[in-house]
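Data card: per-record layout.
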Amino acid sequence: MLIDFLIGLFAANALPHYVMGRLDARVLGLFGYSSRGNIAYAIFCTAVSLGLFHFKYGLGSIIEHMMLLGVLFVVGSYFFGWSIIDRYLRDRSLQN
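The structure for this 96-residue chain is written out next.
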């Protein structure tokens, strides 16, 4: 039961650190205050979550754990979709 809690904790913790890293907000993470440190910590949290899940259940059974899949889907959407979000939603008038 503790491992299940840690799986969810690390998976959910990845998202705010990734977003804060991309926004260059100074949030303390395992690798410091920098944006690169927060992005690295988000990747680390995702890897730890998947590693713990693999240790307890095996990655083949991830389809049976839809709540974790939902969290990982949202985190992955930010990891892979941030450049698209940033390109189309950034206010260009503030950059001049």
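Known properties of this structure: The first helix runs from residue 2 to 22. Helices lie at 2-22, 35-56, 66-89.

See the next section for split statistics.
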